[in-house]
């Protein structure tokens, strides 16, 4: 059991799954499929990346995590995309020495360490370190004083935090002394949104190019690597400055249900949607969203979500700049 001197919050990230990519050709295979320059990844650094259709639209976003085996990587991806993603990737394995395996024996947790905690998280964003209960990957944050990490932990090696257990062994929390186990990941998902971290899901796949969800602004796209599906479209948008839409963060008060892929409108023009919702998380009476829209409509104000008479969107600040690259 890991001992800590400060508060540790654990959130079950049930929406995320682990895909293992292993084999002699695993790195070259991923290099040929993803937007990230996989060959530059080191053992101690993870990376955000995307998987695109031939038309350059994202079929998945994921976090690639190197392991202590140079021929094996883990990918954190949305659970609802997993089956279709594996099926599609296997179509391109051909004669490559690569095995794709869904790791049902691994579970993903969101770990938040208080500023006073002595829990040893990786120092840099996307840093990876090994601890007794699994792999830690430092996650982006919205600039709070708390440290966020994904913890990839073996189901077989976990027990309940503070001796809390469940009849389902997959719900057991890693053994970190003094940790507080939360029943859901609502707060964690809100922080993902405030950090401007896009997770493509089943409802939003094949809708956005990487630049629309700011993947290029948070080191999720390499413009110097070789070919991958959709590269020509992604590169054309980059080099010809044709990025007309960017991802923005907002909150919505009230109880109205907002769904991923639903439209965003300018209230003064209810017949013409100007964007789409990318990601949604709800905490208490507030809904937080990531959505795409052209910059010019933001200055008009009066944005609403879901329908023309929907709730008003209150723009929030992203922790990184998009103004200089927006079209």
Automatic annotation (TrEMBL):
- The domain of life is Bacteria
Q: Which GO terms describe its biological process?
A: iron-sulfur cluster assembly
What SUPFAM superfamilies does the annotation carry? Answer: Folate-binding domain
Task: Say which species the protein is native to.
Answer: Orrella marina
> Gene3D superfamilies, alphabetically?
2.40.30.160, Aminomethyltransferase beta-barrel domains (3.30.70.1400)
Question: What is the name listed in the Swiss-Prot or TrEMBL entry for this protein?
Answer: Folate-binding protein
Question: Could you tell me which PANTHER family the record lists for this protein?
Answer: TRANSFERASE CAF17, MITOCHONDRIAL-RELATED (PTHR22602:SF0)
